[in-house]
Amino acid sequence: MTGNPVLTVADGARIERDASHTPAQLRLSVRAKGMIAFVVIVLYTMMVGLIVAQERQQLFATVQELERVHDLEETLAKINTSVAHAILKEQEIFYAPDPQPGYEALALDIEAIQAGLEGLKRPYPKIEGAIARLGRNVASLRAVPTRAALAELRASLYDLVAELDAFTRQVGSRRSVLSEGYRLIYDAITLTVIIGGVIGVVVLGGLTTLFFSRLARDLRRLESRALAVVTGYRDDPLEVTRHDEIGSLMESVNRMQSALRDHEKQLEITRQQRFHQDKMAAIGSLAAAIAHEINNPIAAIHGVAEAMDEIRRSHRCPGLCQPTLILEQTGRITQITRQMSEMTSPLSAEPQLIDINGLVRNTCNFVAYDRRFRNVKLTLDLDGQAPAAVACADHVAQILMNLLINSADATEAAAERAPEVRVATATRNGSIEITVSDNGCGMDAGTRERAFEETFTTKPAGKGSGLGLFICKSLVERSGGSIKLKSEPGSGTRATFTIPLESRATTT
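Now predict its structure.
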C-alpha cells in the first residue's frame, strides 16, 4: 500500500448506508443501564427497609407486651402490698382484747383488695375463685364478727398470697421471655441493617466498579484501535463486546476500517492497472522505436536480396548463392516487428466490442517473449465460434498475463517434467470462458482457499507481492464474471475466468 488515502464523500455515504442496514439488536444505552442500576438500588433499599420495618413491628409489639407486663407487675406489687397490709391488720385485730372495732375497717381493706383483683381476672382467670372466697369471708365477718371468721379470712389471704406469688412468677417469666425476644429482635434489626449495608456496598459497589472499569477498558480499546486504523491497521476487526453507545461506536470503527480497506484495495487495483498501462505504453514506445530503426536496414537488405535473387535467376548463380534465405529471414524480422507493434498498441480501459480470441492470441504471443517461457510449451486451443464480447480489453489482457506468469512460475517449480501451459477459450451459458492450465506443482486445499486473498503469496520474497490473483478476481467480478481455481499438489493448476457476453463492466 502507498500512503493512507482519505475517504471520499461516496465512501462516507456507504458507511452510513452499511450502518443503516445493520441488523437490529437488543441494545441498552448507558443511560438506560444507569436507570436500571438506580431502580435496582431503590428496589434493594425498599426490600431491606421492608425487612427492617417488619422486624420493627415485631419489636414494637414486644415493647407493648413488655409495657403490659410491667403494668401487671406494678398491679401485682400493689395488690401484694395491700394483701400484706391486710394480713398484718388481721393479725392485729385477731390478737386484740376487743377485736370488734377493727372488723369493719378490715372488711373495707378486703373489699379494696377485691377491687384490685378484678383487674387480674383477664390475664389470670383463676383469681376469680380467690375473689369469691374473699367476698364470702367479708360477708361472714360482717354477719358474725368472730375470731373464727378472722381465722378463715386469714387462711383465704394466705391462699391468695400463694396464688399471687405463682402468678407473679409467671409474669416474671413472661417478662424474661419478652426481654430476650426484644434483645433478639433488636439484634436482628441491627444485623439486617449491617448485612444490607455491606451487601449494598460490596455487591452494588462492586458491580458499579466493574461497570466503569469495563467501560474504561472498552474506551481504551476503542481509542487504541481508532489510532491504529488511522496509522494503517487493516487486519481483524475490533471485537464488539457491548450493546450500547460504545458498542455502536466500535461497530462504526469496524465499518470505517472495512471501508478504508476496500477503498485502499480499489486504489491498489487502480494503481496496478495504471502501472500495467504505463509499462505496456513504455514497451510499446520502445518496440515502435526499435521497429522503426530496424525496418530501414531490413528494407535495404530486403532490396539487395531481391536484386541478388534476380541476378541468380538470370546468371544461374551457384548453389551457395541463396538470397531466398535472406528474404525469408528479413520477412520473419518484419513479421516480429509487426507483431510487437500490434501487441504493444494501447488497449482500451473502457468496455467495448472486442475479439476475445485475437486478444488472447496477441497476449500469449507477447508473454511468450518473457524469459520464464523460454522452455515452456505454450499451446492455444481457441474456440473459433466464440463471438465478440463487450469488455475492457486492458483488463482481460492484465488478467490473462497474471495467470500466464503464475503458470510459468508453477512449471518452473516442477522441474521433473517438461513444462507446458495451455490456454483455451469456450462459450458457455452466455459467457466466454478463458482457461489457463499448467502441469506445474499445483496447490493444496489451504493455499487454494487463500489464493485470492490480498498480499497472500507462496512465492519467495522479492518474487511475488500476492496482488496478482487478488487483482484478477477484482477485475473479473467488476465486469460481472467469475474466476475459480482447480488444483491438486503435483497435478498442476487450472484457472478459469468468464466474460459475460452482455457486459456489466464499470469504468475505472
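The two ends are 18 Å apart (CA to CA).
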